[in-house]
Structure formats: C-alpha cells, structure tokens
C-alpha cells in the first residue's frame, strides 16, 4: 500500500493526532512529487541486505547511515526533542528517512503554503528536498524507528522559518517555478 498523505486541518490539538480536514482531502504521490518529495515502499525486515535500498543509496550518493529509535523510553528529554522536531524548518540538504518500525508524521508545505501531513509507517522511505519547509512528530503510538541517510558527513542543522534568503530555500523555490530536471523515479 502506498503512503498516506492529506491536507491538515487548522486545529491546535495534540500534534500526534491525524489532523485531517472534514471531509478528508487526500494528497497523491504525484502531488507530493511535484513538491520534490520522493517515496519508495521497501521491506523493512530485510533492510540490511535489501538490494533496492542499496541501489537507491548508490544512485543518490547516500554513504552515511544511522538508526534512531524515537520513543519516551529511549530518548532523553523526549518531549523537548519532539517539540524541536515539530518546529517548522528547512535543511540545506535533503532529509532522507526510512521507517523500519512504528509510525509518525512528516508535515510539508505545498505551493500555497498549506500543510500536507504524510503518515510514514514501516517500509516507507521518504526524501524531502533541501529547502522545503517541514516538521516531524510521532503519532499516538509514540514510537518510530528510523534509518537516517546522508550524503557525506551528516549535517543536523535545522533553520527555523523564516528562511526566504537561505540559499537552499531559494534553490527549492526556483526548482518549483522552473520545473527543470527529472528526479530519480520513485514509486
């Protein structure tokens, strides 16, 4: 089954709730790809020897990997960290996450600055382009196991909104308006 995504409501309730509009307004993989968001469905049970994952890593130059268990029992200052992840920000590099277990939400801004919620579950590999405004939170399960991938040494720097003069943000906006280049096919 493909990843689920939808436009969010304007509620200020617990961010770990689904926050679907009523009626629910789903967002397709095609709509996500128009924002530069890429997606693959993989088998998390074989991630250590998964040839498809290895091909993605090789093709895109992801030579660094680590694994993060995010839950109250394993993360010091869990609530504070979750609050930081949920602060709207950009990165100067792609954000690549492969969900190996549990689930959570990546929220991204569309071209009209509306929030789209992307629900990742085990087997979902998602790539957010550099410069896209986004945030992350767990769902009510309060657990996710993520593989984090990087090109070269990992860079953890988040640049909180506003970042309109940030070179990565400018390049992202330019990519949306020019429609140049074709990304590696995802499914």
UniProtKB/TrEMBL annotation:
Q: What class of enzyme is it?
A: oxidoreductase
Sorted keywords for this record are: Amino-acid biosynthesis, Cytoplasm, Dioxygenase, Iron, Metal-binding, Methionine biosynthesis, Nickel, Nucleus, Oxidoreductase
Q: Which Gene3D superfamilies match?
A: Jelly Rolls (2.60.120.10)
- Entry EC number(s): 1.13.11.54, 1.13.11.53
Question: What reaction does this catalyse?
Answer: 1,2-dihydroxy-5-(methylsulfanyl)pent-1-en-3-one + O2 = 3-(methylsulfanyl)propanoate + CO + formate + 2 H(+); 1,2-dihydroxy-5-(methylsulfanyl)pent-1-en-3-one + O2 = 4-methylsulfanyl-2-oxobutanoate + formate + 2 H(+)
Which cofactor is essential here? Fe(2+); Ni(2+)
For binding Ni(2+), which residues are annotated in this chain's numbering?
89, 91, 95, 134
Domain of life where this protein originates:
Eukaryota
Pathway in which this enzyme or protein is active: Amino-acid biosynthesis; L-methionine biosynthesis via salvage pathway; L-methionine from S-methyl-5-thio-alpha-D-ribose 1-phosphate: step 5/6
Q: Which residues bind Fe(2+)?
A: 89, 91, 95, 134
Q: According to its UniProt record, where is this protein located? A: Cytoplasm; Nucleus
Q: What is its main location?
A: cytoplasm
Citing just one GO molecular function, the answer is: homogentisate 1,2-dioxygenase activity
Which PANTHER family did the record assign? ACIREDUCTONE DIOXYGENASE, ACIREDUCTONE DIOXYGENASE 4
Job of this protein: Catalyzes 2 different reactions between oxygen and the acireductone 1,2-dihydroxy-3-keto-5-methylthiopentene (DHK-MTPene) depending upon the metal bound in the active site. Fe-containing acireductone dioxygenase (Fe-ARD) produces formate and 2-keto-4-methylthiobutyrate (KMTB), the alpha-ketoacid precursor of methionine in the methionine recycle pathway. Ni-containing acireductone dioxygenase (Ni-ARD) produces methylthiopropionate, carbon monoxide and formate, and does not lie on the methionine recycle pathway.
Recorded protein name is: Acireductone dioxygenase
Q: Which organism does this sequence originate in?
A: Stylosanthes scabra
